[in-house]
Amino acid sequence: MNKFQKTMLYAGLEKREFEPLLPEAREQNGRYMVMYSSMTAVLFAVCLLTAILAGGKLTVNRPVYATMVVLNVLFYLCARLVLPRRKRLSTLLAVCYILSLYGYAFAISLLHPDAAATAAVAFLLVMPALFFYRPVYMILLTLAVEVVYFVLAARIKAAPAALMDLWNSLFFGSISLLLSVYQMRVKFQLIQEKRKTRQLSETDLLTGVRNRNSFETGRGGYAERCRESLTCVFVDVNGLHELNDTQGHEAGDVMLQTVARAVSDAFGAADTFRIGGDEFVVFSTDVPLTGTRERIGAVLRDVAAMGYSVSVGVSRQEKAALDVDGLVKNAERNMYREKKRYYEQSGHDRRQRVLDA
């Protein structure tokens, strides 16, 4: 794909880099909609009140101001009530919001056919920078809006004012398009950098699973995610310190990476945490205990195939009586009971038994 296409479709990023950023961009658009629509609702309410009190030439603007107050209240309600459940609609709602402001600018301009437009030109400069979207969308939208306005201005406005609007729209519209492409590149790059920083802060660099910080901040959310039950699996690597002492820390790192890969393959990387030097915690939502045992069995087989061993403790609670902290502690206690039994076995027999709460 050439550079121009990449700029227009993916804000200068590769497609594989751009696509994962869209959910966060939609969330940002939702937050912006709440802020912008509330501000413009108040602004148009003030304009309406001013037009009512001042009279004169502003009298003709009253229906436009009233319409914009109603529209922005509706935008605000949609942003607060609908977008949290349907984030994919945020870009569509943002486009509707932009079109409403363009419509306002055109209406005000056409209601005063002898005066050059000011709001329309200002909105041409400002609108493209308000939200997140693919640059090509805003370019097409802006060009379509300009064509519609040119046709209306040529038919309704006085010739001098229409010519002035034509020139201003072409000049400032071109500047706006160039700026919008640049701003979209910057905005999505900032999201990308923020995403990378967050991943680094939440990821264990040695094993690639989530780290202790991510565990502390994210475990509370599992109570809301589960519908029926939550299971905690506590995994401790056997013999890590001995391996470090006899073969060096590189060998110990390989052991940890092997165990982390086996656990994340069985339970999913998003739910696997390394919370200590040789300890891993996994959460499993709404999975029967038999299913959890099967996954643990897969972990034990994968680990044993590489010549390693782990001790595993399991705890499961129903959602109605869920205590996440207590769940983790109970799984940890079960793991220590299993670990003690492991070291008591002669020759460090690698056979494992899983204790269920």
Describe this structure in words.
The protein folds into two domains: 3-197, no CATH class; 212-356, Reverse transcriptase/Diguanylate cyclase domain (Alpha-Beta Plaits, 2-Layer Sandwich), CATH 3.30.70.270. 34% of the residues are buried. It has a five-stranded mixed sheet with strand order 2-3-1-4-5, with helices on both faces. The protein is α+β, with helices and mostly antiparallel strands. α4 (62-81) packs antiparallel against α5 (90-111) and α5 packs parallel to α7. The protein is built from 14 helices and five strands. β2 (272-274) and β3 (279-285) form a beta hairpin. Mean pLDDT is 87; it is low at 349-357.
Average pLDDT for all residues? 87
Note the total helix count. Answer: 14
- Spatial order of strands in the largest sheet: 2-3-1-4-5
**Which structural class best describes the helix and strand composition?**
alpha+beta
What portion of the residues fall into strands of 2 or more residues? 5-15%
Taken in chain order, the helices and strands follow as HHHHHHHHHHEHHEEHEHE
Strand count, sense and barrel status of the largest sheet are: 5 strands, mixed
Q: In total, how many domains does the architecture comprise?
A: 2
Ends distance: 56 Å
Radius of gyration: 30 Å
Give the helix proportion (percent range).
55-70%
Which consecutive residue ranges, at least 5 long each, have pLDDT under 50? 349-357
Number of strands: 5
Shape: elongated
